[in-house]
């Protein structure tokens, strides 16, 4: 299936939790050539697009919408639907972070939370509730808990720079351990804890899924080949469908108990399978050394 042409005019709606990096994201997009408008009410989105002559001027627009003046997801949904009917691509980018990370960031910069409640924790809880529907609407969720400003810039450039958006979809595969928590910004998560655990094999315990004996043990276990075959078949179907909807980046999580053996071996095998389809996937083993 042919993918959308991403050099067409498009609108990015940048939103998310206060303290998760909205301002940094807006600055990065501005450096990338986007026209950026901060704190825009959703009802004015259509008017701003027309004022910038977006369909004819071949421009890209990013608008920052947040909780400062209240937020109606129904109004935003209506505005985005109107733009798409006019042939303008729209994408919602939601920036998030763990609560304790947001608290730490506010304590470091000593700025008040925009909701102005008695404590930062109360404000975060209230804002999460306010933005919950918008998070569900998001096309891209970026968890900045473990990202510095340079890594956030790289992530945005990877997904939204014009050169990158005209390339085939970028696929990232991450192995992880459920006991450490699943990554929050993955699009698809697969649980491989049903496979035999090499941890209980003494000669394999101290190895990792990148070692050949562990990989052989995992991939030769009952159900492993069928599982990989089915996920491979699913991705072969899904990736062109995601591309046709304008998605340029897909994050896949593979989880086991500790993130040392099974998830690592399966992630490596999936990368090889995708390579057979001409898809160059990157692999990161999130908890392999923990």
Strand content: 15-25%
Radius of gyration: 21 Å
Secondary-structure element series: EHEHHEHEHHEHHEEHHEHE
Number of strands: 9
Number of spatially distinct domains: 2
CATH superfamily of the largest domain: P-loop containing nucleotide triphosphate hydrolases
Strand order of the largest sheet: 2-3-1-4-5
Fold-level CATH name of the largest domain? Rossmann fold
Tertiary shape: globular
Return residue spans where pLDDT drops below 50 for at least 5 consecutive residues. 1-7
Measure the end-to-end span: 41 Å
Given helix and strand content, the structural type is alpha/beta
- How many helical elements? 11
Write the topology of this structure.
Layout: E1 10-16, H1 22-31, E2 35-37, H2 45-51, H3 54-57, E3 60-64, H4 73-85, E4 89-96, H5 99-109, H6 120-137, E5 140-143, H7 149-160, H8 162-165, E6 170-177, E7 188-191, H9 212-219, H10 224-244, E8 249-256, H11 262-276, E9 281-285
Parallel strand pairs: 1-3, 1-4, 2-3, 4-5, 6-8, 6-9, 7-8
Helix pairs in contact: 1-7, 9-11, 10-11
Structure overview:
The protein has two domains: 10-165, P-loop containing nucleotide triphosphate hydrolases (Rossmann fold, 3-Layer(aba) Sandwich), CATH 3.40.50.300; 170-285, no CATH class. It has helices spanning 22-31, 45-51, 54-57, 73-85, 99-109, 120-137, 149-160, 162-165, 212-219, 224-244, 262-276; strands at residues 10-16, 35-37, 60-64, 89-96, 140-143, 170-177, 188-191, 249-256, 281-285. The chain contains eleven helices and nine strands. Helix 10 (224-244) packs across helix 11 (262-276). 42% of the residues lie in helices and 18% in strands. It is globular and about 65 Å long. Mean pLDDT is 85; it is low at 1-7. It starts with 9 loop residues before the first strand and ends in a 5-residue tail after the last strand. A five-stranded parallel sheet has the order 2-3-1-4-5, sandwiched between helices. By secondary structure, it is of the alpha/beta class.
């Amino acid at each position: 299936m042919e993918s959308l042409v991403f050099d067409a005019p498009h609108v990015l709606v940048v939103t998310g939790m206060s303290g998760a990096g909205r301002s940094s994201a807006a600055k990065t997009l501005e450096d990338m050539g986007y026209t950026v408008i901060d704190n825009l009410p959703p009802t004015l989105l259509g008017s701003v697009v027309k004022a910038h002559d977006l369909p004819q001027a071949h421009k890209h627009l990013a608008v920052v919408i947040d909780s400062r003046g209240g937020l109606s997801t129904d109004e935003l949904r209506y505005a985005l639907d109107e733009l798409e009917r006019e042939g303008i691509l729209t994408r919602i980018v939601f920036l998030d972070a763990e609560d304790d990370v947001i608290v730490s960031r506010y304590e470091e910069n000593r700025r008040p939370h925009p909701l102005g409640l008695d404590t930062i924790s109360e404000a975060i809880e209230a804002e999460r509730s306010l933005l919950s529907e918008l998070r569900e609407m998001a096309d891209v969720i970026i968890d900045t808990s473990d990202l510095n400003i340079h890594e956030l810039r790289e992530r945005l450039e990877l997904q939204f720079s014009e050169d990158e958006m005209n390339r085939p979809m970028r696929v990232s595969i991450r192995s992880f351990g459920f006991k450490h928590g699943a990554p929050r910004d993955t699009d698809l998560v697969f649980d491989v804890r049903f496979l035999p655990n090499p941890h209980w094999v003494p000669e394999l315990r101290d190895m990792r899924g990148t070692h050949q004996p562990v990989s052989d043990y995992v991939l030769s276990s009952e159900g492993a080949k069928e599982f990989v075959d089915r996920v491979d078949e699913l991705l072969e179907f899904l990736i062109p469908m995601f591309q046709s909807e304008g998605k340029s980046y897909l994050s896949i999580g593979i989880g086991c108990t500790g993130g040392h053996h099974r998830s690592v071996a399966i992630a490596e095998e999936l990368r090889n399978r995708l390579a057979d389809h001409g898809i160059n996937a990157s692999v990161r083993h999130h908890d392999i050394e923990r």
